[in-house]
Amino acid sequence: MTDPALLSELASVFDQMDPVPVTVLAAAEVARRARPARPVRLLAQLRGTPAVRGAGLLTFAGPDDTVALEVAAAGRDTVRVIGVAPSADRLVVRWPTGERWLPVDELGRFAGAGVPRGPLCLVVHRRDRVALTPWFLG
Amino acid sequence: MPEPTTAELVRRARADDQAAWAELVHRYGRVVWSVARAYGLSSTDAADVSQTSWLNLAQRLDTLRAPERLAGWLATTARHESLRVLAARRRETPLAWLDFYPVEDEHLPEHAVLAADTDGALWRTLAELPERCRTLLRLIAYAPELTYAQAASALGIQLGSVGNTRGRCLAELRRRLSGAGVLDGASR
């Protein structure tokens, strides 16, 4: 048996030992549809202690926009996001199956509770442009 | 008809071809998953890492610079996301070579009904190999096109050890399979 043939056999055995859950593949298949319809600017993550189910500051920035936020566990299945996006007229928090507007005050401060745990993305809206953060775990 | 190349699938997915995107997921979903598992993540965390990795690809697909190297991009992304989860859990583990692999009980080999065929023998033999062998062999079995540098980067191991480990692990696997009468010992 050649190496490629053996590796191919191995792949199918690994699939049986620790299969990728069907739900994981299904979520990945719809991921492309969840992207915004119009062209947007993707912000870069500057720094961040991870925001994974615990408190931590994440910072994202592009040429004209910055977003800093903290994600804190709020319930069993929800988190609370709080932060500041000075350039935002309006702000949306998005998750794979939905999204919600977050109120922004005149200084760009925002907060929202009851956001589903899991992958999140912030969408910064201004009159003339839209900017997105990469997806992160909240 | 030959299978479309990864670069071709990326090109079609960029043009909103959902079937092409689904084929990319089918082709590389296991790569992302196996990297998360290589970092010792639970099913739940590995599912989060998978989803975040694919969502980020969806967002960046249009500007991806080298579509033919998608497997490497995904493996690296999965590594970053896995490290974030680990760091958040404040139980960062030395990543040189992980000695654990939290496979759920129902997936443990001894709990499975083993087919009395090559797969069954392979399964038992794999379960006996060191964890570093399983981790590396799994990744390269899922994505043979990964370069050693990409595999090293995805698993957080030294580049120089990838080729050696791959060779030694495959040789050990063959030796044990031959011993079990599954492989012709001379075959290579």
Structure notes:
The complex is a heterodimer of chains A (138) and B (188). Chain A has helices at 3-17, 22-31; strands spanning 41-42, 44-48, 57-61, 66-73, 78-84, 90-95, 98-102, 109-116, 119-125, 130-132, 136-137. Chain A is of the alpha+beta class. In chain A, strands 1, 6, 7, 9, 10 and 11 form a 6-stranded mixed beta sheet that branches. Chain A has a 5-stranded antiparallel beta sheet with strand order 2-3-4-5-8, with no helix packed on it. In chain A, strand 6 (90-95) and strand 7 (98-102) form a beta hairpin. The N and C termini of chain A lie far apart (46 Å). The model of chain A is unreliable at 50-55 (pLDDT under 50). With 188 residues, chain B is mainly α. Chain B contains 8 helices and no strands. Chain B has helices at 6-14, 18-38, 43-60, 70-88, 118-128, 131-142, 148-155, 159-179. In chain B, helix 1 (6-14) crosses helix 2 and helix 2 (18-38) packs antiparallel against helix 6. Chain B is globular, with a radius of gyration of 18 Å. The two termini of chain B are 30 Å apart. The model of chain B is unreliable at 91-116 (pLDDT under 50).
